[in-house]
Amino acid sequence: MTTDPGTKTRTASAETPPLPGVWTIGLQRGGVEIKQFFRQRDQVIFTFAFPIVFLALFASIFRDNLEGTGITASQLYVPTMLASGLMSVSFQSLGISIAVERDEKVLRRLRGTPMPPAAYFLGKIWLVLATGVAEAVILLAVGSTLFDVDLPATAGKWLTFVWIFVLGLTGCALLGIAVSSLPTSGKSASSVVILPFLLLQFMSGVYIPTKELPDWMLSVGSLFPLKWMCQGLRGVFLPESAASLEHAGAWEYDRIALVLGAWVIGGLVLCLLTFRWKSKQDG
Question: Would you call 65 helix, strand, or coil by DSSP?
Answer without folding.
Answer: strand
